[in-house]
UniProtKB/TrEMBL annotation:
Pfam family, one: F_bP_aldolase
Catalytic residues in the record: D82
Keyword field: Metal-binding, Zinc
NCBIfam families noted in UniProt: cbbA
Residues the entry annotates as binding Zn(2+) 1: H83, H178, H206
Binding positions for dihydroxyacetone phosphate per the UniProt entry: G179, G207, G208, T209, N228, I229, A230, T231
Organism of provenance: Entomospira nematocerorum
Details of cofactor binding: Binds 2 Zn(2+) ions per subunit. One is catalytic and the other provides a structural contribution.
Cofactor(s) of this protein: Zn(2+)
Protein name: Ketose-bisphosphate aldolase
Binding site for Zn(2+) 2: D104, E134
Length: 282
């Protein structure tokens, strides 16, 4: 049906109290599995690739597949460039037709983060695309390169940021981390509630793997409208292929297993996020 602007999905999700799953993918089979899941549940989704993963999935190969998959799908799909740090690559993604870019300068000082966010917003506007910015540090690593300590978003920094930066969505650090949590994740819902009361900008939760259904629901209640899921899809594929019970006889059975494992994981998350049945215009 359609490739859709990310911000359009997020505004509706926030208004109607559900979240859009933003699923990181690395190859054609993962794209197929995620699209099948969304179509079966009539759910809008976001597909995304992080800048740090382009070594494995070069942009000039994965981008056309992502954009075509969205255009040909029966549901609304947005394509996001996740954790963009290099302007030239963000521009390339927009040239390929991505619906949004995440500009991640959260590791820099506040003024630089604001400056870069505004630069990328102007760029994305010229493509009729939207952006996501980040403030605070989400722990772990989005591409296995480092392992960062969680740094909670500071409420005064966020006030200042929202006053001076123009963004369509804001990723927050409330105790969430990329990859596997060392123990139970402890999300700071008081902080999330305070952030949410500051503005109407849809909020984004990175590090969705390992968070419980109940915590997802509380996050959505306090304004989270996009939830990123990567590791649990990769884990599902890995265990489907390498578990003792798996008995794949050839390459094509492995290829189908990747599609199926991704599909099941995406479906589970769509159900938890409440976005099933929310794709419009079918
Ligand atoms: P997980 O790998 O923890 O699911 O996080 C994904 C993510 O936030 C990508 O930006």
């Amino acid at each position: 049906m359609s490739l859709i602007k990310t911000s359009q999905l997020l505004v509706l999700a926030k208004k109607h109290h559900y979240a859009i799953g933003a699923f990181n993918v690395a190859n054609m089979e993962m794209i197929m599995g995620a699209v099948q899941a969304a179509e079966e549940l009539h759910s809008p989704i976001i597909l995304q690739i992080a800048e740090g993963r382009l070594f494995y999935s070069p942009l000039h190969l994965i981008a056309p597949m992502l954009v075509e998959a969205a255009k040909k799908s029966k549901v609304q799909i947005a394509i996001n460039f996740d954790h963009g740090k290099t302007i030239n690559l963000m521009k390339q993604a927009l040239d390929f037709g991505f619906s949004s870019v995440m500009v991640d300068y959260s590791h820099e000082n506040l003024e630089n983060n604001i400056f870069m966010t505004n630069e990328v917003k102007a760029l994305a506007d010229s493509y009729n695309a939207s952006i996501e910015a980040e403030i605070g540090v989400v722990g772990g690593s989005e591409d296995d390169s480092t392992s960062l300590q969680v740094k909670y978003s500071n409420i005064d920094d966020i006030k200042y940021f929202l006053l001076h930066a123009n963004t369509n969505a804001l990723a927050v650090a409330i105790g969430n981390a990329h990859g596997h949590y060392a123990g139970e994740p402890h999300l700071n819902f008081d902080l999330l509630e305070s952030i949410s009361s500051l503005s109407n900008v849809p909020l984004v939760l990175h590090g969705g793997t390992g968070i419980s259904k109940e915590d997802f629901h509380r996050c959505i209640q306090y304004g989270i409208a996009k939830i990123n899921i990567a590791t649990s899809s990769f884990d599902a594929i890995y265990s489907s292929i390498y578990s003792k019970q798996s008995n794949h006889q050839n390459f094509f059975e492995v290829s189908q297993a990747i599609v199926q494992a991704t599909k099941e994981n995406v479906m589970q998350h769509i159900e938890m996020f409440g976005s099933a049945g929310k794709s419009r215009g079918q």
